[in-house]
């Protein structure tokens, strides 16, 4: 079962910052999950549309200039990184799941991914683009058929994972509150990987492993590593 550090090892360091990604690598996470918004000609790694929860600034991310945004600190400590900075930092050492939050994918997302393969030691299959907005994923897949995509859901649909197969996704990412054995089996029969978010409790980690899920997103990758390997009982 793959362990993706959700927003990095965000139990230990400010979420979606280089400090959290460093902790994720220390924990030997198989991947990191990051959230991204386009801003000017960059993609910004940040979870919220509004800045107030994580920085001293009020208002929306999209209303700042890139220069203004770069002066902010997450929890007064860490700068807000760009996608390029994160990909350069990881340098192919683990998978990166890039979750599109506010997206205009025509703003060169794939240019950044190609750059990571050409200059930052990534294999194309290490980069997964996911979103709750399935229209964005469909457009991305149409324009770039080789790109691995992950279809997110917070529900267990009547037709289970059919929507992800329709999208030609590599994986379906489902909320831990709604994943069932029937959903996992259906997704596997369709040739899809099943990744579950956000899983921080040992009991859930064990149950999901027994269900045969392919991976979890967790804020606590070192705990997950110990639970999955049987070191934490
Ligand atoms: O990608 C899984 C998970 O991150 C989706 O929810 O709100 O934590 O970005 P959220
Ligand atoms: Mg996310």
TrEMBL record:
Top-level lineage group: Bacteria
Signal sequence range: none
Domain GP-PDE span(s) in chain numbering: 1-228
GO terms under biological process: lipid metabolic process
MF terms (GO), sorted A to Z: phosphoric diester hydrolase activity
InterPro entries, alphabetized: GP_PDE_dom, PLC-like_Pdiesterase_TIM-brl
Protein name: Glycerophosphodiester phosphodiesterase
């Amino acid at each position: 079962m793959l362990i993706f550090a959700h927003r990095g090892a965000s139990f230990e360091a400010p979420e979606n910052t280089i400090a959290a990604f460093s902790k994720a690598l220390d924990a030997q996470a198989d991947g990191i999950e990051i959230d991204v918004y386009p801003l000017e000609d960059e993609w910004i790694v940040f979870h919220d549309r509004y800045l107030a929860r994580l920085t001293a600034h009020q208002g929306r991310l999209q209303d700042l200039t890139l220069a203004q945004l770069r002066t902010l600190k997450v929890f007064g400590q860490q700068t807000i990184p760009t996608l390029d900075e994160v990909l350069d930092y990881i340098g192919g050492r683990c998978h990166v799941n890039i979750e599109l939050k506010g997206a205009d994918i025509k703003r060169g997302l794939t240019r950044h991914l190609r750059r990571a393969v050409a200059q930052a030691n990534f294999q194309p299959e290490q980069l997964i683009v996911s979103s709750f907005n399935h229209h964005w994923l469909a457009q991305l897949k149409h324009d770039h058929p080789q790109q691995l995509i992950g279809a997110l859901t917070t529900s267990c649909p009547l037709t289970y994972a059919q929507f992800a197969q329709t999208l030609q996704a590599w994986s379906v990412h489902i909320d831990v509150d709604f994943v069932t054995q029937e959903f996992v089996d259906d997704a596997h029969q369709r040739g899809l990987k099943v990744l579950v978010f956000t899983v921080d409790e040992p009991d859930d980690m064990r149950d999901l492993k027994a269900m045969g899920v392919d991976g979890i997103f967790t804020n606590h990758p070192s705990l997950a590593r110990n639970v999955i390997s049987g070191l934490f009982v």
